[in-house]
Write a structure and sequence with these properties.
two-stranded parallel sheet; single chain; 64 residues; elongated
């Protein structure tokens, strides 16, 4: 659950970033399942998010 004060903080950060010319981009690292991470992205929140867990995930070039 996003705490209520997170909403205010993200909105303010977004106002600051959008106030620049050209606007700045907010990108955050989120270590949680995608459905929860999506709540941090939006018009009044982060522009993008990434999860570093994929960096250590098993990988195979032949996998489909």
């Amino acid at each position: 659950m996003i705490r209520f004060w997170f909403d205010r903080v993200f909105r303010r950060w977004r106002e600051i970033a959008d106030g620049y010319d050209p606007p700045r981009v907010l990108i955050g690292e989120v270590d949680m399942e995608p459905a929860r991470a999506a709540r941090f992205i939006g018009p009044d929140r982060l522009h993008q998010a990434f999860a570093s867990g994929f960096l250590v995930a098993p990988w195979s070039a032949g996998a489909r």
